[in-house]
Write a structure and sequence with these properties.
Helix content: 25-40%
Number of strands: 6
Largest sheet: 6 strands, mixed
Shape: globular
CATH class: Alpha Beta
Number of domains: 1
Mean pLDDT: 92
Number of helices: 5
Low-confidence stretches: 1-11
Strand content: 35-45%
CATH topology: Nuclear Transport Factor 2, Chain: A
């Protein structure tokens, strides 16, 4: 067995904490690593997005979350204005993780998008099973959808 094989074997038996799972997901978002983003979710995951926007609903299933929700959000930003995400806080207690991040970018409307977001994550078997997101939906509506108020 080579040193690399021993290291890989040790790494695969190391328990993955829920906080590490969420951190890995957010780092994959930041890096644009779609494969890791998709691998971060359980097949039956649910992402709850608040408010009364076109995005507001419970997004059910990994493929729906990754392709329709997250993929749909990307279409709301200018190609050279994709949001820069910065993780600012991460707290974990058991299978529950609270992550706070900022997202700054340019919408297809040309308006500057800057939002402070919080996600309440539930981790099951090393993957994200649920997310309840909190953010300024009025800002999202104005900047990304051109709504008033």
């Amino acid at each position: 067995m080579t040193t690399e094989t021993v290291t890989q074997a040790a790494a695969s038996t190391t328990p993955v904490t829920p906080g590490a799972v969420v951190r890995r997901y957010i780092e994959a978002i930041i890096a644009g690593d779609g494969a890791t983003v998709a691998d971060s979710f359980t097949e039956d995951a649910v992402w709850s997005y608040p408010g009364d926007l076109p995005l507001s609903r419970d997004w059910r299933g990994r493929d729906t979350i990754v392709n329709e929700f997250l993929g749909g959000v990307r279409t709301l930003f200018a190609p050279d204005g994709m949001p820069v995400v910065t993780l600012t806080n991460l707290l974990a207690d058991g299978d529950t993780v609270v992550a706070e991040w900022t997202a700054v970018g340019t919408a297809v409307t040309g308006l500057r998008y800057e939002n402070h977001c919080l996600g309440l994550f539930t981790v099951r078997d090393g993957r994200i099973a649920a997310v309840r997101e909190y953010l300024d939906t009025a800002h999202v509506g104005r900047v990304l959808f051109g709504t008033q108020g």
